[in-house]
Design brief:
alpha/beta; binds 4'-deoxy-4'-aminopyridoxal-5'-phosphate
Length: 351
Protein backbone atom coordinates (compact mmCIF):
# COMPACT_ATOMS: atom_id res chain seq x y z
CA UNK A 1 0.00 0.00 0.00
CA UNK A 2 2.99 2.28 0.45
CA UNK A 3 5.03 3.43 -2.56
CA UNK A 4 8.41 1.71 -2.86
CA UNK A 5 10.30 4.99 -2.79
CA UNK A 6 8.55 5.87 0.48
CA UNK A 7 9.11 2.40 1.96
CA UNK A 8 12.82 2.79 1.26
CA UNK A 9 13.02 6.40 2.38
CA UNK A 10 15.50 7.29 5.11
CA UNK A 11 13.71 10.28 6.64
CA UNK A 12 15.45 13.44 7.75
CA UNK A 13 16.41 13.46 11.43
CA UNK A 14 15.71 16.87 12.95
CA UNK A 15 17.91 17.98 15.85
CA UNK A 16 16.59 17.03 19.27
CA UNK A 17 14.13 19.40 20.95
CA UNK A 18 14.65 18.38 24.61
CA UNK A 19 11.61 18.61 26.87
CA UNK A 20 13.63 19.45 30.00
CA UNK A 21 13.93 23.14 30.81
CA UNK A 22 17.24 24.56 32.06
CA UNK A 23 19.04 22.99 29.18
CA UNK A 24 21.54 25.02 27.16
CA UNK A 25 20.38 24.25 23.68
CA UNK A 26 23.18 24.65 21.15
CA UNK A 27 22.15 21.89 18.73
CA UNK A 28 19.82 23.31 16.07
CA UNK A 29 21.21 26.74 15.20
CA UNK A 30 18.26 28.65 16.53
CA UNK A 31 18.85 32.26 17.54
CA UNK A 32 19.68 32.60 21.25
CA UNK A 33 17.91 35.93 21.43
CA UNK A 34 14.15 36.59 21.27
CA UNK A 35 12.48 38.23 18.25
CA UNK A 36 11.66 41.95 18.10
CA UNK A 37 9.31 43.25 20.84
CA UNK A 38 7.01 44.25 17.96
CA UNK A 39 6.30 40.52 17.57
CA UNK A 40 5.04 40.28 21.16
CA UNK A 41 2.88 43.34 20.51
CA UNK A 42 1.33 41.80 17.39
CA UNK A 43 0.62 38.52 19.18
CA UNK A 44 -0.92 40.36 22.15
CA UNK A 45 -3.16 42.41 19.87
CA UNK A 46 -3.89 39.60 17.42
CA UNK A 47 -7.54 39.50 16.43
CA UNK A 48 -8.35 35.84 17.16
CA UNK A 49 -11.86 36.41 15.82
CA UNK A 50 -10.32 36.46 12.34
CA UNK A 51 -8.87 32.95 12.61
CA UNK A 52 -12.06 31.65 11.01
CA UNK A 53 -10.86 33.22 7.75
CA UNK A 54 -8.17 31.81 5.46
CA UNK A 55 -4.94 33.79 5.30
CA UNK A 56 -3.69 35.75 2.26
CA UNK A 57 -2.66 32.99 -0.19
CA UNK A 58 -0.05 35.26 -1.79
CA UNK A 59 1.55 36.70 1.39
CA UNK A 60 1.23 40.14 -0.14
CA UNK A 61 2.38 42.19 2.86
CA UNK A 62 5.42 39.99 3.49
CA UNK A 63 6.41 40.10 -0.15
CA UNK A 64 6.13 43.90 -0.20
CA UNK A 65 8.37 44.18 2.86
CA UNK A 66 10.86 41.67 1.44
CA UNK A 67 10.84 43.34 -1.99
CA UNK A 68 11.85 46.62 -0.35
CA UNK A 69 14.63 44.91 1.63
CA UNK A 70 16.02 42.91 -1.28
CA UNK A 71 15.50 45.63 -3.88
CA UNK A 72 13.50 43.62 -6.39
CA UNK A 73 9.90 43.56 -7.65
CA UNK A 74 7.23 41.79 -5.67
CA UNK A 75 6.80 39.22 -8.52
CA UNK A 76 10.29 37.90 -7.92
CA UNK A 77 9.56 36.63 -4.40
CA UNK A 78 7.97 33.37 -3.22
CA UNK A 79 7.02 32.84 0.44
CA UNK A 80 6.67 29.44 2.07
CA UNK A 81 6.10 27.57 5.31
CA UNK A 82 9.76 27.61 6.33
CA UNK A 83 12.55 27.28 3.81
CA UNK A 84 12.25 23.50 4.08
CA UNK A 85 8.91 23.75 2.26
CA UNK A 86 10.41 26.05 -0.36
CA UNK A 87 13.27 23.60 -1.00
CA UNK A 88 10.82 20.73 -1.37
CA UNK A 89 8.62 22.65 -3.81
CA UNK A 90 11.70 23.43 -5.90
CA UNK A 91 12.26 19.69 -6.42
CA UNK A 92 8.71 19.43 -7.81
CA UNK A 93 8.79 22.58 -9.94
CA UNK A 94 12.25 22.29 -11.52
CA UNK A 95 13.13 18.59 -11.79
CA UNK A 96 12.00 16.16 -14.52
CA UNK A 97 11.29 12.56 -13.52
CA UNK A 98 14.35 11.26 -15.34
CA UNK A 99 16.71 13.91 -14.01
CA UNK A 100 18.33 14.39 -10.62
CA UNK A 101 18.90 16.76 -7.72
CA UNK A 102 22.51 17.69 -6.98
CA UNK A 103 24.16 18.86 -3.78
CA UNK A 104 27.53 18.79 -2.07
CA UNK A 105 28.48 16.53 0.79
CA UNK A 106 28.68 17.27 3.63
CA UNK A 107 25.91 19.83 3.44
CA UNK A 108 22.36 20.20 4.69
CA UNK A 109 21.25 16.60 5.26
CA UNK A 110 17.71 17.37 4.09
CA UNK A 111 18.79 17.65 0.41
CA UNK A 112 19.20 13.88 -0.24
CA UNK A 113 15.91 13.25 1.56
CA UNK A 114 14.12 15.76 -0.68
CA UNK A 115 15.50 14.01 -3.77
CA UNK A 116 14.24 10.69 -2.38
CA UNK A 117 10.79 12.14 -1.62
CA UNK A 118 10.64 13.51 -5.15
CA UNK A 119 11.69 10.00 -6.25
CA UNK A 120 14.60 11.13 -8.42
CA UNK A 121 18.29 10.44 -8.18
CA UNK A 122 20.28 12.44 -5.63
CA UNK A 123 23.77 13.31 -6.86
CA UNK A 124 26.17 14.03 -4.00
CA UNK A 125 29.46 15.66 -5.03
CA UNK A 126 32.29 16.12 -2.54
CA UNK A 127 32.22 19.62 -1.05
CA UNK A 128 34.75 21.54 -3.16
CA UNK A 129 37.13 24.24 -1.98
CA UNK A 130 36.28 27.79 -3.11
CA UNK A 131 38.95 27.53 -5.81
CA UNK A 132 37.46 24.27 -7.15
CA UNK A 133 33.79 25.29 -6.91
CA UNK A 134 33.47 26.53 -10.54
CA UNK A 135 34.69 23.15 -11.84
CA UNK A 136 32.67 20.95 -9.46
CA UNK A 137 30.30 19.70 -12.18
CA UNK A 138 32.92 19.21 -14.88
CA UNK A 139 34.99 17.02 -12.63
CA UNK A 140 32.00 14.91 -11.64
CA UNK A 141 31.64 12.73 -14.74
CA UNK A 142 27.83 12.85 -14.89
CA UNK A 143 25.72 11.58 -17.84
CA UNK A 144 23.49 14.59 -17.42
CA UNK A 145 23.77 17.54 -15.07
CA UNK A 146 21.08 17.71 -12.37
CA UNK A 147 18.01 19.82 -13.19
CA UNK A 148 18.34 21.36 -9.72
CA UNK A 149 21.46 21.89 -7.62
CA UNK A 150 21.30 22.92 -3.95
CA UNK A 151 24.24 24.90 -2.61
CA UNK A 152 24.04 25.99 1.01
CA UNK A 153 26.09 29.18 1.26
CA UNK A 154 27.31 29.54 3.97
CA UNK A 155 27.35 25.78 4.19
CA UNK A 156 25.91 23.70 7.02
CA UNK A 157 27.32 21.94 8.93
CA UNK A 158 30.81 23.16 7.92
CA UNK A 159 30.06 26.91 8.47
CA UNK A 160 32.18 27.85 5.43
CA UNK A 161 31.39 30.49 2.81
CA UNK A 162 31.92 30.56 -0.97
CA UNK A 163 32.71 34.05 -2.29
CA UNK A 164 30.17 35.47 -4.72
CA UNK A 165 32.55 35.47 -7.68
CA UNK A 166 33.14 31.72 -7.33
CA UNK A 167 29.42 31.07 -6.94
CA UNK A 168 28.75 33.07 -10.10
CA UNK A 169 31.19 30.92 -12.08
CA UNK A 170 29.60 27.74 -10.70
CA UNK A 171 26.14 28.98 -11.74
CA UNK A 172 27.36 30.03 -15.20
CA UNK A 173 28.62 26.52 -15.89
CA UNK A 174 25.42 24.89 -14.66
CA UNK A 175 22.58 24.51 -17.18
CA UNK A 176 20.02 23.61 -14.48
CA UNK A 177 18.55 25.71 -11.69
CA UNK A 178 20.98 26.53 -8.90
CA UNK A 179 19.24 27.11 -5.58
CA UNK A 180 21.57 28.99 -3.24
CA UNK A 181 20.35 28.26 0.26
CA UNK A 182 21.23 31.34 2.31
CA UNK A 183 19.71 30.24 5.62
CA UNK A 184 22.81 31.61 7.38
CA UNK A 185 23.79 34.47 5.05
CA UNK A 186 22.94 37.17 7.59
CA UNK A 187 25.96 35.99 9.61
CA UNK A 188 28.35 36.17 6.62
CA UNK A 189 30.18 39.16 5.15
CA UNK A 190 28.48 38.89 1.77
CA UNK A 191 25.66 37.05 -0.02
CA UNK A 192 24.57 36.04 -3.52
CA UNK A 193 21.35 38.03 -3.87
CA UNK A 194 22.79 39.77 -6.92
CA UNK A 195 23.11 36.43 -8.75
CA UNK A 196 19.42 35.62 -8.26
CA UNK A 197 18.49 39.09 -9.52
CA UNK A 198 20.65 38.94 -12.65
CA UNK A 199 20.98 35.30 -13.76
CA UNK A 200 18.26 33.23 -15.45
CA UNK A 201 18.96 29.99 -13.58
CA UNK A 202 19.69 31.18 -10.04
CA UNK A 203 17.35 31.48 -7.06
CA UNK A 204 18.24 32.39 -3.47
CA UNK A 205 16.36 30.91 -0.52
CA UNK A 206 16.33 32.52 2.95
CA UNK A 207 14.59 31.96 6.24
CA UNK A 208 13.33 33.91 9.24
CA UNK A 209 14.35 31.00 11.49
CA UNK A 210 17.92 32.11 12.21
CA UNK A 211 18.86 35.80 12.14
CA UNK A 212 15.26 36.91 12.76
CA UNK A 213 14.77 34.58 15.77
CA UNK A 214 11.56 33.10 14.38
CA UNK A 215 12.16 29.35 13.88
CA UNK A 216 8.86 28.72 15.68
CA UNK A 217 6.63 30.47 13.14
CA UNK A 218 7.98 28.75 9.98
CA UNK A 219 8.59 31.34 7.31
CA UNK A 220 11.03 30.96 4.44
CA UNK A 221 11.25 32.74 1.11
CA UNK A 222 12.93 32.51 -2.23
CA UNK A 223 13.72 35.13 -4.85
CA UNK A 224 14.89 35.01 -8.43
CA UNK A 225 13.61 35.11 -12.03
CA UNK A 226 9.84 35.72 -12.23
CA UNK A 227 9.16 32.61 -14.35
CA UNK A 228 10.71 30.34 -11.71
CA UNK A 229 8.77 32.09 -8.94
CA UNK A 230 5.55 31.70 -10.90
CA UNK A 231 6.19 27.96 -11.24
CA UNK A 232 6.40 27.62 -7.45
CA UNK A 233 3.15 29.55 -7.00
CA UNK A 234 1.41 27.13 -9.37
CA UNK A 235 2.17 24.09 -7.21
CA UNK A 236 2.09 25.33 -3.63
CA UNK A 237 -0.75 24.59 -1.18
CA UNK A 238 -3.39 27.29 -1.50
CA UNK A 239 -2.80 28.69 1.99
CA UNK A 240 0.73 27.59 2.77
CA UNK A 241 1.59 30.36 5.26
CA UNK A 242 -0.83 30.79 8.16
CA UNK A 243 -2.37 34.06 9.27
CA UNK A 244 -0.49 34.42 12.56
CA UNK A 245 2.84 33.68 10.88
CA UNK A 246 2.20 36.35 8.27
CA UNK A 247 1.42 38.98 10.90
CA UNK A 248 4.37 38.02 13.11
CA UNK A 249 6.80 38.00 10.19
CA UNK A 250 5.59 41.42 9.04
CA UNK A 251 6.14 42.82 12.54
CA UNK A 252 9.66 41.41 12.69
CA UNK A 253 10.53 42.68 9.21
CA UNK A 254 9.43 46.18 10.24
CA UNK A 255 12.21 46.15 12.87
CA UNK A 256 15.43 45.18 11.05
CA UNK A 257 17.55 47.05 13.61
CA UNK A 258 16.59 44.47 16.23
CA UNK A 259 17.72 41.62 13.98
CA UNK A 260 20.99 43.37 13.13
CA UNK A 261 21.79 44.05 16.78
CA UNK A 262 21.30 40.36 17.65
CA UNK A 263 23.29 39.30 14.61
CA UNK A 264 26.16 41.53 15.71
CA UNK A 265 26.08 40.09 19.24
CA UNK A 266 26.19 36.55 17.82
CA UNK A 267 29.08 37.37 15.49
CA UNK A 268 31.05 38.86 18.42
CA UNK A 269 30.33 35.78 20.57
CA UNK A 270 31.31 33.55 17.66
CA UNK A 271 34.73 35.23 17.44
CA UNK A 272 35.31 34.78 21.15
CA UNK A 273 34.09 31.16 21.18
CA UNK A 274 36.33 30.16 18.26
CA UNK A 275 39.36 31.86 19.83
CA UNK A 276 38.80 30.19 23.20
CA UNK A 277 38.14 26.77 21.68
CA UNK A 278 41.37 27.07 19.68
CA UNK A 279 43.20 27.99 22.86
CA UNK A 280 41.89 24.74 24.37
CA UNK A 281 43.30 22.80 21.42
CA UNK A 282 40.10 22.45 19.37
CA UNK A 283 40.25 22.80 15.58
CA UNK A 284 37.62 25.23 14.32
CA UNK A 285 36.61 26.22 10.80
CA UNK A 286 36.36 29.97 10.23
CA UNK A 287 32.62 30.38 10.61
CA UNK A 288 30.35 32.55 8.45
CA UNK A 289 27.28 31.30 10.36
CA UNK A 290 25.77 31.21 13.86
CA UNK A 291 27.54 27.95 14.68
CA UNK A 292 31.06 26.57 14.96
CA UNK A 293 32.21 23.38 13.22
CA UNK A 294 34.98 21.96 15.35
CA UNK A 295 37.05 18.96 16.39
CA UNK A 296 38.05 18.39 20.04
CA UNK A 297 41.68 17.70 20.94
CA UNK A 298 42.74 14.09 21.62
CA UNK A 299 42.09 11.99 23.60
CA UNK A 300 38.63 13.58 23.51
CA UNK A 301 36.44 12.59 20.56
CA UNK A 302 33.30 14.25 19.22
CA UNK A 303 31.26 11.58 20.99
CA UNK A 304 32.97 11.92 24.37
CA UNK A 305 32.88 15.72 24.23
CA UNK A 306 29.18 15.67 23.30
CA UNK A 307 28.43 13.28 26.17
CA UNK A 308 30.42 15.38 28.64
CA UNK A 309 28.56 18.56 27.64
CA UNK A 310 25.25 16.72 27.87
CA UNK A 311 26.01 15.66 31.46
CA UNK A 312 26.31 19.35 32.23
CA UNK A 313 23.04 20.21 30.52
CA UNK A 314 24.49 21.46 27.23
CA UNK A 315 23.20 19.95 23.99
CA UNK A 316 25.28 20.18 20.80
CA UNK A 317 24.94 18.35 17.45
CA UNK A 318 26.96 15.40 16.21
CA UNK A 319 26.55 13.95 12.70
CA UNK A 320 27.88 10.38 12.67
CA UNK A 321 29.59 9.23 9.46
CA UNK A 322 32.99 9.29 7.80
CA UNK A 323 32.87 12.89 6.53
CA UNK A 324 31.44 14.49 9.67
CA UNK A 325 31.79 12.09 12.63
CA UNK A 326 34.94 13.62 14.12
CA UNK A 327 33.31 17.07 14.35
CA UNK A 328 30.76 18.73 16.61
CA UNK A 329 28.50 21.56 15.54
CA UNK A 330 28.01 24.08 18.31
CA UNK A 331 25.41 26.82 17.91
CA UNK A 332 26.64 30.22 19.07
CA UNK A 333 24.43 30.98 22.06
CA UNK A 334 24.36 33.99 24.35
CA UNK A 335 27.60 35.05 26.03
CA UNK A 336 26.35 33.52 29.26
CA UNK A 337 25.61 30.16 27.64
CA UNK A 338 29.00 30.12 25.95
CA UNK A 339 30.68 30.95 29.29
CA UNK A 340 29.09 27.83 30.80
CA UNK A 341 30.17 25.70 27.84
CA UNK A 342 33.76 26.94 28.04
CA UNK A 343 33.81 26.43 31.79
CA UNK A 344 32.82 22.77 31.35
CA UNK A 345 35.43 22.24 28.65
CA UNK A 346 38.16 23.94 30.69
CA UNK A 347 37.48 22.16 33.96
CA UNK A 348 36.99 18.74 32.45
CA UNK A 349 34.37 16.46 33.90
CA UNK A 350 33.19 17.40 37.36
CA UNK A 351 30.18 15.13 37.58
N1 LIG B 1 18.74 25.44 4.99
C1 LIG B 1 19.74 25.14 5.83
C2 LIG B 1 21.14 25.09 5.29
C3 LIG B 1 19.48 24.87 7.18
O1 LIG B 1 20.46 24.54 8.02
C4 LIG B 1 18.15 24.95 7.65
C5 LIG B 1 17.84 24.73 9.10
N2 LIG B 1 17.65 23.41 9.48
C6 LIG B 1 17.15 25.23 6.74
C7 LIG B 1 17.47 25.50 5.42
C8 LIG B 1 15.69 25.20 7.12
O2 LIG B 1 15.24 26.38 7.63
P1 LIG B 1 13.71 26.64 7.92
O3 LIG B 1 13.58 26.74 9.39
O4 LIG B 1 13.40 27.92 7.22
O5 LIG B 1 12.92 25.50 7.33
Amino acid sequence: MIRKSVQNLEPYTPGEQPKISNIIKLNTNENAYPPSPRVAEVVRNFDFGRLNLYPDPLCTRIRELLAARIGCPFENIFVGNGSDEVLRLATYAFVEDDSSVGYFSPSYSLYPVLAAIRDVKGVALPLPSSADLPYALEGADLDKTPDLFFVANPNAPTSTFYPRAQMRRFCEKNPGVVLIDEAYAAFAEDNCAELALTMQNVVVCRTMSKAWSLAGIRLGYLFGPANLIEALYKIKDSYNVNRLTQEVAAAALSDPEWMTANRNKIVATRTRLAAELRELGWKCEDSATNFIWCVPPEPETAETAKAKLRRHGIVVRHFPGPATGDHLRITVGTDKQIDVLLEVLKKGDMQ
